[in-house]
Amino acid sequence: MKKIFIFTLALIAITPAFAQKKKKGKGDSKNAVVLMTHNDSLAYAYGIMSFENAKGAGLDIVNYELVMQGIKDAQTGQMNMDKEKSNAFINAEVKNIQAKKSAEARKAGEDFLAKNKSKAGVITTESGLQYEILKEGSGASPDRNDKVRVHYHGTLIDGSVFDSSVERNKDIEFGLNQVITGWTEGLQYMKEGAKYRFYIPQNLGYGSRAQGKIPAFSTLIFEVELFEVKKVD
Q1: Catalytic-residue membership of 171
Q2: Is 163 a catalytic residue?
Q3: Does residue 152 have an active-site annotation?
Q4: Alpha-carbon span 155 to 174, nearest angstrom
Q5: Is 5 a residue of the active site?
Q6: CA–CA distance, 124 with 121 (Å, rounded to integer)
Q7: For a disulfide at 173, which of 26, 59, 123, 149, Cβ 3.0-4.6 Å?
Q8: Band of the pLDDT at 25, cuts 50, 70, 90?
Q9: For residues 48 and 28, what is the distance between their CA atoms, to the nearest angstrom?
């Protein structure tokens, strides 16, 4: 796991003048500050990025007085927790948060698929892949070594879109053995001209690997329209 260093960056002194200056004027936030110097801007940017890094890692920081105390203690060298222990503590916390989110995503996907398989028109294969036929085709079907040209629209089970060639208005071509297992299996059931909806369990998708907007252990939903099969000898 990539280590996350949040509060052990090079420390920036925040001067009293910077901390106390307030903007005045109609429509200004009463808590806004005036960035009078380059170092003021650097300090303020550091504060924003520290918060965003903590938020992105899932850390729930509520005691900002202790955050500031940690910075001051690091400046003076009088710390209650050294750099190595601080990093280890934060990394362990991030790892625990990620493990909890992964377990929740896995269970949510399993619960969704268990309910979805009883839905009218949904077919479940031996691998656990689920699909339904939105429009049947009449052309060739690909095998795993062929290339295909398709449109697709991918969402998570909460409906959020993570990728869509449809939204980009540009279809895509790829080798069927170059994609996730759920796609490799699923498209072989299709014929040219068909449109299917696939419900792909996490083990046939990206599994423990988070991919962009796709969290680890996510069940994926794809609507796929197969335009063309290019046979590969």
Answers
A1: no
A2: yes
A3: yes
A4: 20
A5: no
A6: 10
A7: 149
A8: very low
A9: 19
Q: Which of 152, 157, 189, 227 is catalytic?
A: 152
Is the confidence at residue 121, as pLDDT, over 50?
A: yes
User: Apex CA 70: angle with CA 67 and CA 72, to 5°?
Assistant: 110
162 is catalytic: yes
| pLDDT category of residue 161 using cuts at 50, 70 and 90 | very high
How far is residue 226 CA from its own chain's centroid?
27
89 is catalytic: no
Which of 18, 131, 198, 222 is flagged as catalytic? Answer: 222
Q: Give whole-number Cα distances, 208 to 185, 214, 217, 229, in Å.
A: 20, 10, 5, 31
| pLDDT single digits (tens) 183-200 | 999 999 999 999 999 999
Q: Are 218 and 155 in contact (CB under 8 A)?
A: no
Position 89 confidence tier, pLDDT thresholds 50, 70, 90? confident
Q: Is the pLDDT of residue 53 over 90?
A: no
Can you give the pTM of this predicted structure? 0.72
Which residue among 73, 133, 180, 227 is the active-site one? 180
Catalytic residue among 162, 171, 189, 227: 162
